[in-house]
Design goal:
This protein has 167 residues and is α+β, with helices and mostly antiparallel strands. The protein has five helices and ten strands; from the N terminus they run E-E-H-H-H-H-H-E-E-E-E-E-E-E-E. The protein has two domains: 79 residues, no CATH class; 53 residues, SH3 Domains (SH3 type barrels), CATH 2.30.30.40.
């Protein structure tokens, strides 16, 4: 059987869940397609396979094209048409983030974190105390080691190594 994304023939296929849609939604894809580190050119076959009749394959293809940072992937993504329900599913992808707290737990915009040590806030003249909760954080897009939040009414940048997610 061929991989429904890259059309590789006779490769062992791995059942891969497609979150955000039906609870049992999954696609059977090759190991290369399942690995986020695979080189973008591996996915050139998406030009034809993104038109699959299987909505789970369509969603997986749309998400793959969105994460690839190449001109051809952006062009294909612009061409891809999905039914409204399938588009909502594709857009409902859990955000992958490189922002992690001191315990390695993924952080997302809007989370609440707690400071794990006293931090001197440069330029503001105060110390943010250990145990302080910082609500509705923002992720700094170009630096996964930084988040932003309000402490004592001041918007500050905080290193992720000094926080833990409050769950």
């Amino acid at each position: 059987m061929n991989c429904p994304l890259c059309t590789t023939a006779d490769a062992p296929l791995i059942e891969t869940p497609v979150p955000g849609g039906p609870s049992d939604a999954a696609v059977f894809i090759c190991a290369a397609c399942a690995d986020p580190q695979t080189v973008p050119d591996h996915f050139r076959a998406l030009a034809s396979t993104m038109w699959s009749d299987d909505p789970a394959v369509q969603v997986f293809a749309a998400r793959t094209l969105k994460r690839l940072d190449t001109d051809w992937a952006r062009d294909l993504s612009d061409q891809l048409y999905l039914e409204e329900e399938t588009q909502i599913w594709a857009d409902n992808a859990p955000m992958e983030t490189a922002h992690k707290d001191s315990n390695g737990v993924a952080l997302a915009s809007g989370d609440t974190v707690v400071l794990i040590k006293d931090l001197n806030v440069k330029g503001a003249g105060f110390t943010a105390k250990r145990g302080t909760a910082v609500h509705r954080i923002s992720l700094v897009a170009d630096n996964s080691a930084h988040i932003e939040g309000r402490v004592e009414g001041q918007r500050i940048v905080i290193l992720t190594e000094f926080v833990k997610k409050r769950g």
